[in-house]
Predict the structure.
Amino acid sequence: FRGSVRQFVDFLLPAHITGLAVAMLLYSSDRLAPIMFASAVAIASKNILQLRFGGRARHFLNPSNFGITVTLLLFPWVSISPPYHFSENLRGIGYLILPAIICLSGMMINLRFTSRMWLILGWWAGFVAQASLRSLLFGASFVGALNPMTGVAFVLFSFYMVTDPATTPFDSKSQLIFGLSVAALYGVLVTLHVAFGFFFALTLVSGTRGLAQFVANLNRAESPARIPAHSAAA
């Protein structure tokens, strides 16, 4: 980061983006300490909790989501921004313009740059499916179970958090499974009356994926090196 002004700005971008995500999604009244704590945990996890994927050391937990998860667990009085938080003062067409801007920009980013639309579709389809199952099995209101989808927090989570390219699969099939898994686990958590299921579900799914990669790395390291057949014959 000491090479140039541009390198310095690029160096700060991850922390800047994480801080914005945490500040938008967490609600701690007028206290800044929980936001600072969540951002610090997020950046620390990115640099400490790493595994080798394809020969490269990479973080496996979504930094912003993990920072939010830890903060929600440690500080029960901290909450998630309510669905009306960003749009309660909008009137008329403005009530539609803000979500439209977020959705269009999110679609463009995930279509052109991250290639995570299959993951989003899996997450959305899984969310509708878990709402249907909760309605059929437990008598929950189907419309009420879908209600979180109308909030700005859900839109931000769908386009800018669950799709983190560094901590999600690359191929389409794995993306679908990842999105469906987050939605399914969310449904289980809500059934168990666990609040803020979005963030806990994503942390658990990402952590399970990281654990599977850790086991795979161990097995690969412990397996004996294979000797080519021509060398053995010689």
Q: What stands out?
A: The chain has a mean pLDDT of 88.
